[in-house]
Amino acid sequence: MKHATKLLLLPFALTLAIAACKPAEPPAAAVEAAPAAPEATAPAEAPIEGVSGTYVIDPNHTNVVAQWNHFGFSNPVANFGQVEGTIVYDADNVGASSVEVTLPLSGLVSFATDFNEHLSSADFFDAAKFPVATFRSTSVESAGGNRLKVTGDLTIKDNTHPVVLDVTINRFGEHPMLKRATAGFDATTTIKRSDFGVGAYAPNVSDEVQLRITTEASVAAPEADAAG
């Protein structure tokens, strides 16, 4: 009987021994929650100090890239090159700034010869009858930091509709090669091509077209001013 009692007490004794070796837990009130890590916040975009002037767009460093969805299979692009135009920037009164651009359809490239011809045909831009597209701003507003909101009229095939460009100012400064004041901008917008008479195959080929623009523009060279 004594032997049986010893056997019954053995697990109890082992439990007490283990409990004695385990470090005591602090009372609940003494446990402090770890401080939460501060939420990361994106650094504010520093405003770029613009320089007032009339800037002539450089067609060699300007792209207007259109992208759309093709039957859900791919997202092709086309580039409107040979862009001409001027950007008037008023640093003291941004609202007095303006943009005027001409996009010759002879500079439209889709990176596929057959498709270039199709885009120029009457199915789309009918470039023989309407050789250019144009954009003329109607308002320019500061959007904070280095951003602008430029609203204007886009005309394609004699169809004119308002378009809003979300513009990022990249830089104002002296061009290291031209040695003239230069400005650089990027911009994005989305349009419905059917509004402009180029809505063939919509909606299977997406009606919405995303436009991405990058441009450099410099003040006119002194000799050009004298000649003009």
Automatic annotation (TrEMBL):
Q: Which SUPFAM superfamilies match?
A: YceI-like
Query: SMART domains given for it?
Result: YceI
Q: Which PROSITE patterns match?
A: PROKAR_LIPOPROTEIN
Q: Which domain of life is it from?
A: Bacteria
Known InterPro entries for this protein?
Answer: Lipid/polyisoprenoid-bd_YceI, TTHA0802/YceI-like_sf
**Gene3D superfamilies attached here?**
Lipid/polyisoprenoid-binding, YceI-like (2.40.128.110)
Spans traversing the lipid bilayer: none
Which residue range or ranges hold the Lipid/polyisoprenoid-binding YceI-like domain?
54-218
Alphabetically list the UniProt keywords. Answer: Signal
The residue range of the signal peptide is: 1-19
Give the protein's recorded name.
Polyisoprenoid-binding protein
Q: Which organism is it from?
A: Luteimonas marina
